[in-house]
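Archive maintenance. Older records in this collection stored only the sequence; we are now back-filling the structure field for every entry so that each record is complete. The fields below show one back-filled record exactly as it appears after the update. Entries are processed alphabetically, and ATP synthase subunit c is next in the queue.

ARCHIVE ENTRY
Title: ATP synthase subunit c
Organism field: Roseateles paludis
Length field: 89
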Amino acid sequence: MVEVISFVALAAGLIIGLGAFGACIGIGIMGSKYLESAARQPELMNELQTKMFLLAGLIDAAFIIGLGIALWFATANPFLGQIAQLAAK
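Back-filled structure field:
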């Protein structure tokens, strides 16, 4: 039973860590492409800025959803009862 809880903590840490890593890389690449395109065509800067902030929100939303799921598994593991039943058999 203790092993299952430790694996859940490990999985939650991986979900949070890899999600944060991916979100940071994605926003970094998007920001660099925004600056590059704004330097090439400054007249499109306002339009590009709107799209960049929309995409930044979507990238962050995906990470926040993963964070919520990881914390849900870490605090209230729904599979723990099923695993306890299997271990009792």
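Update note: Residues 2-40 form the longest helix (39 residues). The chain has a mean pLDDT of 87.
Entry marked complete.
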